[in-house]
Amino acid sequence: MSTRNVGFLLLAVALVAPWVAYPVFLMTALCFALFACAFNLLIGYAGLMSFGHAMFFGLAGYVCGHAIKVWGWPPELAMLGGALAAGALGVVTGALAIRRQGIYFAMITLAFSQMVYFFCLQAPFTGGEDGLQGIPRSPMLGGLLPVHNDMVLYYVVLAIFLFGFGAIYRIIHSPFGQVLKAIRENEQRAVSLGYNADRYKLVAFILSATLAGLAGSLKAVVMQFATLTDVTAAMSGEVVLMALVGGIGTIFGPVVGAVIIITMQNYLAATGEWVLVIQGVIFVAIVLAFRKGIVGEIADRWRAYSAGSRK
Amino acid sequence: MADPLLKVSGLNAWYGESHILHGVDFEVGKGELVTLLGRNGAGKTTTLKAIMGIVGKRTGQIRFEGQELAGSTSDIIARAGIAYCPEERGIFSSLNVEENLMLPPVVKPGGVTVEEIYTLFPNLLERRRSQGTKLSGGEQQMLAIGRILRTGASMLLLDEPTEGLAPVIVQRIGEVIRQLKTRGFTVLLVEQNFRFAATIADRHYIVEDGRVVDMVVAADVERSIDKLHDYLGV
Amino acid sequence: MFELIGIPPQALFGQLLLGLINGAFYAMLSLGLAVIFGLLNVINFTHGAQYMMGAFAAWLLLTVLGIPFWAALVLAPIIVGFTGVLIERLLLRRIYHLDHLYGFLLTFGLALIIEGVFRWKWGSSGQPYDNPIPGGVNLGFMFLPYYRGWVVIASLVICLATWYAIERTRLGAYLRAATENPTLVRAFGINVPRMITLTYAFGVGLAALAGVLAAPIQQVSALMGTNLVLVVFAVVVIGGMGSIMGSILTGFGLGLIEGLTKVAYPPASNIVIFVVMALVLLVKPAGLFGRTK
């Protein structure tokens, strides 16, 4: 089964899903799926483990929400603004973080996200602990899209998700993506071949931040609020978990991971702290036993199977 | 030989997937000085590491003083009385000279005292407060040999102690190794420098492609010189 | 009374004292992180949770068994250190051959589990812990609560003792050597795996000790270590993990900077350490005392 066929299958599922499941839940899942894909672009293809991606996701949500609610921007423009704000934050934090590698990179991004968290906690426009509430679902494209209707909004969200997903797919398969992979495999060799590894890493970081910001903006539009939770280290950990569960460095892994984690949270929401405990257990189990994630394991089995049947 | 101190038989060793030693057999008698000779990549260093238990995986027998060590971890092997001086010398940069010297724990009574080591290598005494890796190559080698004498180990595994050193230092190290032999140490020496090895060793084993292929005793070296040159490619 | 740039000295010195106390915790935690990372190559994300466990252990010893603070100061780190032994033996040991990131993720998962369980059992709200040395002395320019003064001195002594043990003793030489080349140290006859276990337990115990010291100052709560560990990561990036004394100086120094910021411009006090981190990354990416590893 090729990647393309899997893609069509998933697309078909996504198109009929809102008639079967609760659209707001599906939209949330799509937002997180895009967020996880953006994160995966960085870890899976540039080998950079960001542990602070919530800063892009969360900050973009605030910017987008503020633009709609206070400045009266149409949602599409506000989402663009949110994504660009996240991208700008990515320029600054990325330029500093790529000065260190490996585990330090993770710690530095985590520290920066904590800084953004405290900023959002205190900044006047975020509503502090209460968050930014009551973001109106203004019509999009000059009134063409009445997104106050959940079904309409679902297909808008799906389209934006597909746009983001397609962009990531294109980036990975572009010459730029190939160089990124070469840097991930062996940075020194890539440098000796004349590639400016730092610049490639920074561009990947900014792209990932921008797309994470798009996901955060989208979530603010869907949920009609932006919250401090989305800027926390726990949220940064959650997106890592989504990518890990699905499979780091696989195209569909983050989507699968996001759907699983969001579904789990949906069912376990009433149990409070146990959600975190279970997430912790999943982290431990994956690191010890399933480092390839669900999609990674399936792809391995499938390859072994088709190699065996061809003989 | 009646009862060898160290008897290695059928030793196989791997680094990850690559199979390096394919059944190494040899023995070393008590008080003997034996070398392993061979070309680069023949498996000499790996043989020492396999004896010490610091390769990826190994099989075969390693009997030392009648004790089987092939299944043991390297700390147990060291405590059985085998001391190892690696090719890269392994001087610790975060330790000063004296700390490097005092690092290996005493495993048996009867080791060389610190005073004797400083007499053997006066340079080390002068520089005992310096950072270990600030020493010259020759001094680092002396430190690397010196520190394993303290432990009371009866058998020394020395991996290319003369590598990259000036002739006068090589000579000094030769003297020291000879002195160690007279003190009763058993030495297994890996060498590239055959001319150096020939001056001090009792016997030579030739290692090729992960096996011991020949043995030459010191008295026969003159007669076997063509054969040896052939083995070593000199 | 004199005033410094419009700031009453009571407030200034009070905040500086608070800064020193926070700095003491930063120093003790980053010290443990650095020692653990040196030998295990694992950034111990569980460190904040273990700090919290230290405080909880002291609180439970007092409220359940009636064991006073001074005994808890010894017992709690031992208890938490023992849980560290279990974590190292059962979990961490399996991942040393993997990329460092897996250790980070594994210990992050553990932190979620530990904090979640404590929250489930004792809730998120803080439990008060009685001050073991109430009272204080008026120094003229400030009021010094005895306990706070004691914490600063005790943690300094602990940090310097740790420095001495690592840099000046035989056991410390083993640790430094094994950090550089564990294979060779083991081939000298030292049981390195046991040393790794004990080093982890020691680092964790140090975090727990900081937790016990914090208990009478802060409320004992399940989440008291969550944000702290993130600040300590920044401290570690600023100091670099190469030097023990560097960790201590960086920890106390940043605590003071934070305290000063609290006086000068309170809203920035939460983020000043991260700003310092950004500046250090610009000027000296390896950290103030760092060697690139």
TrEMBL record, chain A:
Keywords: Cell membrane, Membrane, Transmembrane, Transmembrane helix. GO terms for molecular function: branched-chain amino acid transmembrane transporter activity. It is found in: Cell membrane. It is a multi-pass membrane protein. It comes from the Bacteria. InterPro entries: ABC_transp_permease, LivM-like. The chain crosses the membrane at residues 20-42, 77-98, 105-125, 152-172, 202-227, 239-262, 274-294. This is Branched-chain amino acid ABC transporter permease.
From TrEMBL, chain B:
Residues 6-234 form the ABC transporter domain. Coiled coil: none annotated. Transmembrane segments: none annotated. Keywords: Amino-acid transport, ATP-binding, Nucleotide-binding, Transport. PROSITE patterns: ABC_TRANSPORTER_1 (PS00211), ABC_TRANSPORTER_2 (PS50893). Belongs to the ABC transporter superfamily. This is ABC transporter ATP-binding protein. The lineage of its organism: Bacteria, Pseudomonadati, Pseudomonadota, Alphaproteobacteria, Hyphomicrobiales.
UniProtKB/TrEMBL annotation, chain C:
Pfam families: BPD_transp_2. Its main location: membrane. It is a multi-pass membrane protein. GO terms for molecular function: transmembrane transporter activity. One of its GO terms (cellular component) is plasma membrane. The keyword Transport applies. Keywords: Amino-acid transport, Cell membrane, Membrane, Transmembrane, Transmembrane helix, Transport. Coiled coil: none annotated. The chain crosses the membrane at residues 20-43, 55-80, 100-118, 147-166, 195-216, 228-257, 263-283. One of its GO terms (biological process) is amino acid transport. It is found in: Cell membrane. InterPro entries: ABC_transp_permease, BCAA_transport_permease. Belongs to the binding-protein-dependent transport system permease family. LivHM subfamily. This is Branched-chain amino acid ABC transporter permease. It comes from Vineibacter terrae. The lineage of its organism: Bacteria, Pseudomonadati, Pseudomonadota, Alphaproteobacteria, Hyphomicrobiales.
